[in-house]
Amino acid sequence: MKIAIMGAGLSGLACALTLEKNGLTPTILDNRRCAGDRFVNGEILLPMLEESFSDPLIQLSEAYGIYLQPTNNITALTLHSENKTAQLTGQLGFINLRGRVENSFESQLARQLKTKILFNSPYDYTDILKEFTHIVLAVGDFRYTEEIQRVKSSLAVTLKGAIVAGNFNQREVAAWLDNTIAPKGYCYLIPLSGQEANITLAYPEYPEAQGLSQNKLWDKFFERVCKDTQQDLRVTDQFEIHQYRMGISAIPRIGNTFFVGNCLGTMMPALGFGQLPSMLSGIYAAQDLLGQSSYQKTAKSIYQSYNHSLTLRKFLESLDNAKLDTLIDLVGTPLANRLLNNRRISLLKIISRLLAPLFG
Ligand SMILES: Cc1cc2nc3c(=O)[nH]c(=O)nc-3n(C[C@H](O)[C@H](O)[C@H](O)COP(=O)(O)OP(=O)(O)OC[C@H]3O[C@@H](n4cnc5c(N)ncnc54)[C@H](O)[C@@H]3O)c2cc1C
C-alpha cells in the first residue's frame, strides 16, 4: 500500500497520526512551507453544537491517542442581538489557536508525528494518482472536491477578521447575531490571551449581499464590539477570506481516494464549526485504510451532523432582527442555561429534529 495524504492540516494530520500509530507510514504532502503556515486566528470547540455531545479533547485522547492542548476553557458565552444580550455559563468548550504559531492545533499535531511532512509540494491530485495506490484528499478546500465528484453545495461565505489589542476575560467568548451587521451571518470575539482577541465578521455571499460594502459592515461591527466591550480596541493584524465554500460531497470515497475534512464537507453550515469533524474524518479514513472499519459507514455521522447544521442555518436565516431579539431573550433564561449545560443531550440534534419539518 502506498498512501499519500494531500494536505497537512487538521484532517490530514489526524489521519497520518492514526496510520502511524498502527504501523503504516503515509507520504504527507503540503503545498505550504510548514504546518499552519497561514494567518493566526482563534477558533473554538463547542460540544453543545457537536453531534456527539462529549468533551472533544477527552474523546480525541482516550479513543484515538491524539493530544491537543487548548489555550483556555470557555466558561461564558455572551450572545448579542441588535437590542438584547444573554449569557450562558458553565464548562462550555475550548478556545484554541490556528495558524503559524507554536501552539496552534496543526503545529501540535505535526509535533506528535514521526513521519516527515514534505512541504512546498507542487503536486496536484492527478500527479499523485499516478504514484500512489491510496490518496487521502485533505487540502481543506471544498472547491477541490467540486472538481472531482458530485457535491451538494450549500453556501459560500465571506470572512473578515482581525487580531485586536485590549483587555479580555480569557474564558469568555462573544457572538453577535444582527442582520444589520452580518446579514444572515454572525460575528464573534474569541480571546487569545488577556490582552489579545480575534474578532471576525462572517456572512454568506448570497445575491442580496452583493451590493453591500464589506468595509461598512466591518466598521459597524468594530464600533459595536468596542461599545459592548467598553474599550477602544486596536487592530494589530487582519485577514480576509472570500468564497469559503460549504457543502457536502456525494460520497466519502471514490475508488481509493478518501475525501476528508473540508474536502468531505466537515465545515458545518450553521456557524462554521469544522475542527472536530475534520479530525474525526481523518481518523475514520485511516481506520478504513487499516482494515478496521468502513469509511462509507463511519462518515455517515458527519453527513448527519452536516444536515442537522444546515437545518439550523435555514432556521437562523429565517429570523429578522426582532425575532433574533426574542431568541436571545429565550437563550438567557435559566432553563435554557440548564439545557445547554446538560451533557447528556446534543442541542444540535434536538434543535434540528424540532426544526426539520419546517426547515429540513
Ligand atoms: C476564519 C475561520 C474560523 C473558523 N472557526 C472555527 C471555529 O471556531 N471552530 C471550528 O470548529 N471550526 C472553525 N473553522 C473551521 C475549521 O478551521 C475547518 O473546518 C478545519 O480547519 C478544516 O480542516 P481541514 O483539514 O479540512 O483543512 P485545514 O486544516 O485548512 O488544512 C488544509 C491543509 O492543506 C494544505 N493544502 C492546501 N492546498 C494544498 C495542495 N494543493 N497540496 C497540498 N496541500 C495543500 C494547506 O496548506 C493546509 O495545511 C473556521 C474556519 C475559518 C476559515
From TrEMBL:
Stored SUPFAM superfamilies: FAD/NAD(P)-binding domain
InterPro entries: FAD/NAD-bd_sf
PROSITE patterns on file: PROKAR_LIPOPROTEIN
Organism superkingdom: Bacteria
Protein name, entry field: Dehydrogenase (Flavoprotein)
Organism whose genome encodes this protein: Propionispora vibrioides
